[in-house]
Design brief:
With 132 residues, the chain is α+β, with helices and mostly antiparallel strands. The chain has one domain. Helix content is 53%, strand content 12%. It starts with 7 loop residues before the first strand and ends with a helix.
């Protein structure tokens, strides 16, 4: 495992939706070096998130140039940052470039994540981190 740089996106690698979303983003093309980090294997970043009061079961966390973006704000910022190359990135930008749409849609996205984890028999990060 490489050590994360100063810019990173922390997500739940056990969530198939989160993993696919991060895989399809072309974030590095837009912002340069950024670590795409699974919270389950980057405990140092998960600890940093928790120390700053962020709950990764409530949303992904982007740290960019020393600033944190969580949940709906995170996907809004990602939509504005990513390139417009590829159908996924164009759709992502079209839907989530609006802060209002991101804020309204995010609870449904989080519900989908929680249902997927439950159906797959996987624990949420809180339960995983409690053993950490």
């Amino acid at each position: 495992m490489t050590s994360p740089g100063q810019n990173w996106l922390l997500y739940d690698g056990d969530c198939p939706f989160c993993s696919r979303y991060v895989a399809y983003l072309r974030l590095r093309e837009a912002v340069g070096p950024v670590t795409l980090a699974d919270a389950r294997s980057h405990s140092e970043l998960l600890d940093e998130a928790l120390q700053h009061g962020y709950d990764l079961d409530e949303g992904m966390l982007l740290k960019l140039d020393g600033r944190y973006y969580h949940g709906a704000e995170c996907i809004n910022v990602l939509a504005l940052l990513t390139t417009s190359s590829g159908i996924f990135n164009r759709m992502n930008r079209a839907v989530f470039r609006s802060k209002t749409v991101a804020r309204l849609a995010y609870p449904a996205l989080r519900l989908g994540r929680n249902l997927a984890l439950k159906l797959l028999g996987r624990e949420q990060l809180k339960q995983t981190n409690a053993a950490h």
